Predict the 3D structure of the following.
Amino acid sequence: MPLVQANGIDLYYEETGNGEPLLLISGLSGNTLGWEPIRPALAERFCAISFDNRGAGRSSAPPGPYSTRQMADDAAALLDRIGVARAHVVGLSLGGMIAQELALAYPERVDRLVLLATYPRLRPGVHDPWLNAWLQAGERGMDPASFEICMMPWMISPAFMARHDLVETALVESLSDPYPASAVGISGQVEACRAHDALERLPQIAAPTLVLVGADDILSPLSYAQELTERIPGARLQVLERCGHVPFLEDPETVAETLLAFLAA
């Protein structure tokens, strides 16, 4: 099992394909399996490096709270351990926050940057109840299927939710994940989300940046993507139609094509 000691913890990672290195950073509680819808397409052009953030999957889950800067340090340490000096970076949701910190703290390590379904800082009035639901589910041991059904409307588009066959398939796939995040890990990652605030530092990001957002993303809507685009020098915004918070679950072909077009430019 590919584990490395990085930043004082064990990090699980996978490498797929050949070519320039491409680092994929997962969202809250996510692990390497979440990238499967687009990993094969990306691996045709790049060496896709996915890993489990601290607190998720097969990586260590030390007591929190964590911070997005700490998790960016983890990512940089992973690149050190596997001998990658510089990589393209794609971050989803919490992974996009980590990617912001990685580009700010280690500009020499980030080639092209993609911020997918993410935001520069949390809006407590909207995000706190959602994050509290994650904490309470872990602490109380909520039935996983019930929790997934409650979370789905936040994560995927109304059009997808109206297709019960697609919802059922997505639910089965989610519940079959053999490496669910622990309550300790989720708690640490939730606190990283709460504390993240890169808004005033975004103009310091030097990497060519693509901001991607689903048109039907209600968790990180277009206004947050516009905020990122306006503050990061030269950043480009692209809206993915008929997609929610995790676009590659709904339209993996378009997401993969969009990423490849930007990263290979």
